[in-house]
Amino acid sequence: MDLYKLSVKEASELLKKHEIKADELLDSVYARIEAVDGKLGAYISLCREKAESMAKSAQSKIDNGEAGALTGIPAGIKDNICTKGIATTCASKMLENFIPPYNATVIEKLESSGAVITGKLNMDEFAMGGSTETSYFKKCANPWDITRVPGGSSGGSASAVASGEALFALGSDTGGSIRQPASFCGVVGLKPTYGAVSRFGLVAFASSLDQIGPITRTVEDSAIVLNAICGADSRDSTCADYKHPDYTADIDRGVKGMKIGIPTQYIGDGLDPDVKEAVLRAAKHFEDLGAKCDEVSLPAADYAVPAYYLISSAEASSNLARYDGIKFGYAAKDCKNLAQLMDRSRGEGFGREVKRRIILGTYALSAGYYDAYYKKALKIRRIIKNGFDKVFENYDLIIGPTAPTTAYPIGSKSGDPIAMYLGDIFTVPVNIAGIPAMSLNCGFDKQGMPIGLQIIAPAFNEPKIFRAAYAFEKSTPYNKFPNI
Amino acid sequence: MSQKADIEYLTKLARMELSAEEKASLEKDLDAIIGYMDTLSKIDTDEIEPMEHVLGLSNVMRDDNPVPSYDRDTLLACAPNSEDGFYDVPLAVEQ
User: Fold this and answer.
1) What is the pLDDT of residue B95?
2) In terms of residue numbers, what domain contains A245?
3) Domain residue extents for chain B
4) What's the CATH number where A320 sits?
5) Fewest C-beta atoms under 10 Å: which of A177, A228, A294, A395?
6) Residue A158 in this model has a pLDDT that exceeds 90
7) Cβ contact (<8 Å) for A237 and B49?
8) Which residues constitute the catalytic centre (chain A) (predicted)?
9) Which string of b and e fits A205-241 if b means at least 16 CB within 10 Å?
10) Is domain B3-41 classified as CATH 1.10.20?
């Protein structure tokens, strides 16, 4: 049996029944990494020694009958989530040598639930990008076709989970960075409600939009991981004091009687015909399962991308001001004064896309442009949020494509920032409105590349997403393992 | 509302030293991106209040309970340059 192919749920059951051991499972995952990561480039670093000791303590928990849902489960972590004593690079030269002195809250939670951290996963530099091509260290490939991108920015997380290099992974999603790579790699990616998961220890990109979430191979695994990482945190004042339910509890209740909206703006021009067909087929499938699907309207959908890039770049320009070459991170050599140390460290330490966003954000916040750009974008943000609220007065869920296309060839879009930004058209409105959404596979295009279906719910309505996604997954043949 | 971005001024505000080539290429990108952002001017937002944050939070307060902090050596170990228990930086004030 290839243990690395197991879902979290299956592996956990086998561990608890003593049919497999935590170290066997871990060995299987590392053997898989050795076999395929040369082609995929999903990991930036591995922490095998620490993982082996974590697997050992997980095994004693299991032997003592104290195992939880994640005890002994190998997990990869996006490299912008701080791990104590393990380099956290954000795929940037700026943080190449940064070893955090503390764990992110989600890492503390995973560790206390017994998960075994395998290593740190590749990403777009500082999570800015949609293809993992802006990583300072290396390109990352899609396990369904290694000449194509895995999506981004959590491309390493999606590529690793799809190919069996981890049983699950954590990613972060500021404008689609969990859902779009999940879509490109045919796995399940969840961006939880803003405030459902603590951001303490997540390297900040755009604080009003960032959220950590799971990338898994099944819908149920997604609920299991969300159970482990959600909850209030005194170290993140934006983390909601909310009594989270057990997200696995009602997962099999089905969609009978649910009302699902499909925004006209999400199935219009510019959508790849194979993607459109798969999404409409999914809507039909939900009707067959007993839901009612209607076309609905989300006004200002066309304005979401420019509004998102203004807000996120403005916040990034402020958040990334902390990289000054003094307290941590890259420092330029032989500077004659303090100002030069800052100017040169930032000029040499950041890559092209990060510089582009910092400059755009600086422009949007600068005197004379603030009202026309930043403030305008904040007004569009309210229009977009109101648009979702209005639809959710009458509908339980919204469905649509996760991305306008499937995974494209490496290098084909990297020279054109606007084309790259437009790939986020269906994902950014969700972050702007702070609501939860999942991407799961709903078919394959003519080249055999996975197509993501996005399921969107009102704030803190993740259980509805899980119910619909689980019903869809269980009654369709699209949850597959790539041949790599 | 579009106006050519002054790349020299912006790199100063952002405190980033860029090469002449980088500036030229960034200026070109920025003109295209800002041109695209100008589509926002087509939408009437006169009656709309800006929304900074979905949660509408302001000044979240908590009890001021002292907790152990990181020790000096741990934090200085993250610094690219330190000396005698301090951050080491080049000249800060010109003489």
Assistant:
1) 67
2) 1-483
3) 3-41
4) 3.90.1300.10
5) A294
6) yes
7) no
8) 78, 153, 177
9) bbbbbbbbbbbbbbbbbbbbbbbbbbbbbeebebbbe
10) yes
